[in-house]
Every structure is written in structure tokens, then in C-alpha cells.
Amino acid sequence: MRSAYGVVALASLVSSRPAPESTLIKSQALALAYVDQETGFTFSESKAAATLSSNIIYRIATPANVPSGQPYDVVLQIVAPNSIGWAGLAWGGSMVRNPLTVSYPNGQKTTASSRWATGHSTPQSYTGATLTLLSKGNKSNSTHWQLTAKCTGCTSWIGTSGATRIDPKDQKRLGFACAAAKPSSPGSNTSTIPVHDVYNYFTHDFAAGANANFASLLTKNGVSGGGAETGNVTMV
Q1: What residues does the Cellobiose dehydrogenase-like cytochrome domain cover (predicted)?
Q2: pTM (predicted TM-score)
């Protein structure tokens, strides 16, 4: 697996103004396999620098043996320090015209929001990707908060270059952004998101997170469907 060093790929999740140089933190991400004892999923894991001394952990679990060219669901897990008010992931590696997953703490719970931007302005709610929280893996303690959600529609979309699909057996550049400031309504998945403090990108190895029992693990964690994309999910 390769290390990836990124500088300035994700322009912003929330603002059209370019960020000052002080917001750019060199990111080093090495995707590794991580077995989550709580949910049972094997995730591919990358760490993204939120500050000079702390990281946001992005984990992605995929179904094994996805048919070639077919869309598929994933499980996304985000672990962030409590100093982070929100964290976002751009599945296409940039802000514009690709699914954006934004998450933020809400007391002892977490909120997940699916967004889409057509330009360098505040992203709007996106119905093309549906997020469903697992019954386990969503929590907050004295040091960190964690999101664990199934996403239908995060791995394929129609963007600027036409139809795009993330190959579950390959590496993919992803974008991320975060801020210390919290959303105005943390219990709402349509809340206004403050301007980011940090944005960057990393290369993620999707193959490291393959799960042969993906569908049964979803059932174990209170979520229906799995493998190929389905519409029988609850938006959060």
C-alpha cells in the first residue's frame, strides 16, 4: 500500500473564498485494514491531519466481489477529536459535483448529512446519496466522537466528467475538510455548516476494506440491504 501526500485538492465544503495558506496542513494518509470489534466490519483506514497534532480517521468498508461496473453500498466510519465541530468527506476528491458526506456531534449522538455542490458555494442537501446510521458505532465521549453509517450512492454519481464509479478494488483520491466551529443546528442534517479551517486530500485503498459478509454485518448492526445499491434505507 502506498502513502499519499496531498496539498490543496479539496477547495472547500462550505465557502467560495479561497482559504489562507495557514489553513493548509500537509496530509499523510496510509490506508490500512482495521477490524472494528464493535460492528464486526473490516475497514480500510486513512488518517487525515486536522491540526498539527491531531488526526481525523476515515474508515470505509466495502462488499467483497462487487460485480464489475455495478454500483455498491459502503459503510463509512469517521472518528474525530472533540475539538472538531464537523468533518466532511468528498468522494470524488473535490468540492464540486460529487457526493459530500458531512458529520458532526450532537450531544452523545452523531448526525450525518449528504450534500452536493454545483460551485464553490455552500453545498445543498443531496438526495442521490442516502445515509443510514448503524445501531452501533455512533457515539461521543470525553475525547472523540464517532460516526458509522451505511451510504447508498456515495460510490457512483453523474458529475462534471459524466458517470463516475469508484473501483472497490483500487485506490482513490478523496477530499476532506473540517472546522472547529459547530453547525448551528447539530441535530439537523440540513444545518448550516461553518466555513472550514482545514481542507486537503488523501489517497485511500478501498480494497483493504472488503467484507465477504457485508450484508449480514449490516443486518447485525440494524440496517437492511447491502452489497449492490438498494433504495430501502432511511435517510438521516
Answers
A1: 34-215
A2: 0.85
